[in-house]
What does this fold into?
Amino acid sequence: MSTQFLKPQIAESFSRAAVSYDSVAQLQRRIGHNLLSDLTQSSAEVVLDLGCGTGYFSPLLTEQLKPQQLICCDLALGMLEYARQTRVTPNTLWLCGDAEHLPLADNSVDLIFSSLAIQWCEDLPALFSEVSRVLKPGGRFLFSTLGPDTLYELREAWSAVDRYQHVNRFVSFSSLQAGADQYLRKVTLKAAEEVLLYDQLRGLTTELKGIGAHNISAGRQNGLTGKARINAFKLAYEAFRRPDGKLPATYQVFYGEYING
It folds into this structure.
């Protein structure tokens, strides 16, 4: 069930984007707030923000759950350094680590909150096995992630130009559910759609670069893309322009809550 992402490049890409991320991450914040609104717990002793990024949700988790310890974990050291400098929260441990190999003890966490992070995992069974291992019995895993229809307009526009992989690919709903159900007990797993609108295509491509989520999959094209191909790509994307004059970019979002044991 590998998604064929290159972990060192993921870490490097998001580390470079740490300073610019919050200024262009309106969708990411909205999805995270949606996830947080699904959290009915009012307290938890040990909370893990898995894939914490710039630490935007650390004060919100602290306010809602009042944990004795908040662990903010991310693969990108640059993100963690930025978060540590800009977010002031009590009882917080900043931890650089891989979700598939969590540097945490067994049965040590009450709640794992993870918004738009696990789509970068290469091995979902390994991820869910680790989540189950570190969660206490009855502990909860609350997550949002992206589905394979994310940015389908971008993918289809590039497919009219060449056969390289220009857009990150994410796992299907059924694959996500199969991976989670093997280790955890499902509470909810649902799909939603978010559509962002742009006047020009540059707005989308600049935003993707600003959050560090441009194409970092294995199999992508390396090097520069010629002007003629760029123009052909732009022309192909124009086929998606709406009657109101806006260019859409669709995100397929999966929201899940699981219990350990």
